[in-house]
Design goal:
- The protein has about 130 residues and is of the alpha+beta class.
- The chain is built from two helices and eight strands.
- It has helices at about 40-50, 115-125, and strands at about 1-10, 15-20, 25-30, 30-35, 55, 60-65, 75-85, 95-100.
- The longest helix has 13 residues, at about 40-50.
- The protein is globular.
Length: about 130
């Protein structure tokens, strides 16, 4: 089994943080895999720092555990909601092409279908699907 974490990260203005990777099309919420010997919380903190220079201002809230059948038949994603602040702008590099905070009513073009589904679940407070 593989395990990943991903978070809907909101700033104090209620905007969501999204990233666009250099190696995949579309905009995503930040996240990544949980490494051997690492807790889900540690992985989430690391991914938010690496992908957005983000620090959580309150404990994250676990919203759902999904089976991600597009990655493999054994991949699971823990989806969180988190309040964050950015310590410095995230400059583009080999992994992240663009990133930023967006109002929910003014999202960038090219958001992935899974990101749209997660945001719809979050805005309506569920129900949350079983599959990513």
């Amino acid at each position: 089994m593989t395990l990943g974490v991903r978070a809907a990260c909101f700033d104090d203005q209620g905007r969501i943080f999204l990233v666009r990777h250099t190696y995949l099309p579309g905009w995503y919420m930040p996240g990544g895999g949980v490494e051997r010997g690492e807790t889900a919380s540690q992985a989430l903190e690391k991914e938010l720092r690496e992908e957005g220079n983000l620090v959580m201002t309150a404990p994250p809230v676990l919203l759902q555990s999904y089976l991600n059948r597009t990655a493999s038949r054994r991949d699971h994603v823990l989806f969180y909601s988190a309040r964050v602040r950015q310590t410095a702008p995230r400059l583009p590099d080999r992994e992240i092409a663009e990133s930023g905070f967006f109002p929910l009513d003014a999202l960038p073009a090219g958001i992935t279908p899974a990101t749209r589904r997660r945001l719809a679940e979050l805005v309506t407070d569920g129900p949350y699907a079983d599959f990513w």
